[in-house]
Amino acid sequence: MAHGDMSFFSRPSSSAVKISAPPSDEPSSPKPSSKKDNTQRQCRNILIYGHCKFQDKGCIYYHPPREAPSPGPPDSPTPGAALPAQAVNAPVFVPKTPINPSSPTPAEAVPASIQQQSSVSSDTTSEPSSSQSPQPSPEQQEYYDEQGAVSEHEQYDPYNPYAYPTHGGEGSEDGGHMASVNPYELPPGYDAATLDPFYAPSMSFHRQPLNYHLYTLPRPGSLEHRYFISDDIREELQRRSETIRAACPPGISLPEELQGYHTLVPLEPPNVERRKFGNWYSTLYRAVNSNDGATYVLRRVENFRLMQPTALTTIEAWSRLRHPNIVTVHEAFTSRAFSDSSLVVVYDDHPNAQTLYEAHIKAKPPQFQGGRLQAVSNRVSERTLWSYIIQIANAIRAVHEAGLAVRLIDVTKILVTGKNRVRLGSCGVVDVLMYDLPAELTLLQQDDLTMLGALVIQLCNQSVNAMNNLQKAVDVIGRNYSADLKSVVLFLISKPGTHKTIGQLFDMIGSRLLTELDEAQNAVDRLEGELMSELENGRLVRLLCKFGFINERPEHNHDTRWSETGDRYIVKLFRDYVFHQVDELGRPVVNLTHVLTCLNKLDAGSDERIMLVSRDEQSCLVVSYREVKVCIESAFGELTRG
Ligand SMILES: Nc1ncnc2c1ncn2[C@@H]1O[C@H](COP(=O)(O)OP(=O)(O)OP(=O)(O)O)[C@@H](O)[C@H]1O
């Protein structure tokens, strides 16, 4: 329907809410003032009162001859008789800041704060209950009385907002004049400096902003994924988060405090078979550090008597070594808190990490597949094996370059901390335990390579005992894996010699390093993508927080109706529009895509219009997201200014 027509439409299921078509020269439009056009449009006061006090005192609207009956809109069901004054007791949209005061308005003689009201207007058919529809202030009432600005609406179907032509488009009915309106522009008078800096970035744009409209295309099936990280990563991270908050099982007595660590939780269930760590039993605990509140893993070696305190200096050397394939060592101390003399070494916590043994060697219970219980294969693929070899070799290289030796490369001490990500764990413990038995570093480093060879053989054979029958184990590798892999294994378990260095191993690995590099970079890209979705998500959370600050606030500035009046009323109705819609049977519409779409359009300050309906369905407002955004900024600004 062409702009300028005076027509009405009603919300299908509501009690006749009437909205008239908007003028083509919206107040927020920068289109040159159309005073002349205004004189062609009927003054609303004629409709309401049958006369206009300002007819000869500057009112720019058309006034039919006094004796003539005021003509109603052509297709209006409303008789042309004057409406009662109470009929305009509609919720009032009074943004504190003009949306665009530079835009010429149809009523230039009206103060800016009042002009603003004509950009969003309401129409009513009966008096709304005061609890639902706040009374306008006296000045607002006066303005409504005098200007009758409540009838300025676009004639859009508010229930299909996506069907509307975009402002500024070539074929737009406003002649494309909206194209010059920057929807991201901050409203003049907006004082970002007074706002919480936490929110400031979303409000002031110092450079060309992203085109958020691109994000708001309604794509119901896929939209949710764009605002949340993918399910598998989310689940994994949530499980980790749960793990670090797990409480100690009842019946286990542990020290309350241990050298700045508290809330100890054993990492292994109490009844598992215990293996010795050299000559000692050791136990792992997760504990919270009192200084930084983070969790760490403490390896306690039971009944260990530290003969030489200098033994702990090796831990200092380890704590300086940071490598992506090594579980970082933090500190070591002795303690009597467990009622014995224990050595405790503190490591980074990698919640839900598995050892290589648990991941690839330990038998897994059969699982239902295709309706039948089937054994689960533990076989490590060649690709994964190469990845493990490269990562562990890289860690060994870093250790050797730091003048240390790993001394413990074992399937039960290497952790898988993510997808195919491995880290050497328990570093440094052997150095302390064996401090009294010094050994030549180069020999220890050669041993590291031999231990790596044994580890690969165990993984290929899925058995910790594979080294007991070396010939058979190597044959298995020859049958199941490439010749290159077999060569690497044979090199690693060969006799020590000057040729046998970690550098030599990298020569053998060759171009597989590049494959590993590709994978690593792809993984970074994937994670960056996930991060982006969370970034968008965070933007929306900030918006929701603003709603939370504003909506239902019991009082502000001694005004108990603050959150129910003025700009805040729009915010409340918008909140209802986003969250409290019901379908034709009155069932709640719980549609995340609708919520995300609305919030994004709000954040982008879209010029698209929506109809907000009061809870009693007696009044409605047609507003653009941009106008709602201004209301939110204004209300939030009031709160942050104190
Ligand atoms: N730094 C760490 N962060 C998180 N989990 C860890 C860490 N170190 C070890 N774990 C986990 O603790 C569990 C026990 O580890 P480990 O087998 O080394 O302990 P242990 O007491 O030496 O056991 P065992 O006596 O069976 O060798 C494993 O599931 C392992 O994944």
From TrEMBL:
Biased composition (Pro residues) is annotated at 67-77
List where in the cell it is found: Cytoplasm
GO biological process entries? mRNA processing; nuclear-transcribed mRNA poly(A) tail shortening
In this protein, which residues make up the domain named Protein kinase?
270-514
- First and last residues of each zinc finger (C3H1-type): 37-66
Q: Where are the transmembrane segments?
A: none
Segment Knob domain: which positions?
550-642
Q: Name one GO cellular component term.
A: P-body
Return the Low complexity bias intervals. Answer: 115-141
Q: Which UniProt keywords apply?
A: ATP-binding, Coiled coil, Cytoplasm, Metal-binding, mRNA processing, Nucleotide-binding, Zinc, Zinc-finger
Q: Per the record, which residues fall in region Disordered?
A: 1-42, 64-180
GO MF terms here are: ATP binding; poly(A) binding; protein kinase activity; zinc ion binding
Q: Which residues form a coiled coil?
A: 511-549
**Which residues does the annotation say bind ATP?**
299, 412-413
**Residues of the C3H1-type domain:** 37-66
Question: Signal peptide location in the record?
Answer: none
Major subcellular site: cytoplasm
Q: How does it assemble?
A: Homodimer. Forms a heterotrimer with a catalytic subunit PAN2 to form the poly(A)-nuclease (PAN) deadenylation complex. Interacts (via PAM-2 motif) with poly(A)-binding protein PAB1 (via PABC domain), conferring substrate specificity of the enzyme complex.
Q: What does this protein do?
A: Regulatory subunit of the poly(A)-nuclease (PAN) deadenylation complex, one of two cytoplasmic mRNA deadenylases involved in mRNA turnover. PAN specifically shortens poly(A) tails of RNA and the activity is stimulated by poly(A)-binding protein PAB1. PAN deadenylation is followed by rapid degradation of the shortened mRNA tails by the CCR4-NOT complex. Deadenylated mRNAs are then degraded by two alternative mechanisms, namely exosome-mediated 3'-5' exonucleolytic degradation, or deadenlyation-dependent mRNA decaping and subsequent 5'-3' exonucleolytic degradation by XRN1.
Family assignment from sequence similarity: Belongs to the protein kinase superfamily. PAN3 family.
Domain observations = The pseudokinase domain, the coiled-coil (CC), and C-terminal knob domain (CK) form a structural unit (PKC) that forms an extensive high-affinity interaction surface for PAN2. Contains a pseudokinase domain. The protein kinase domain is predicted to be catalytically inactive because some of the residues important for catalytic activity are substituted and it lacks the equivalent of the binding site for a peptide substrate. However, it has retained an ATP-binding site and ATP-binding is required for mRNA degradation, stimulating the activity of the PAN2 nuclease in vitro.
Kindly provide the name given to this protein in its UniProt entry: PAN2-PAN3 deadenylation complex subunit PAN3
- Gene assigned in the entry: PAN3
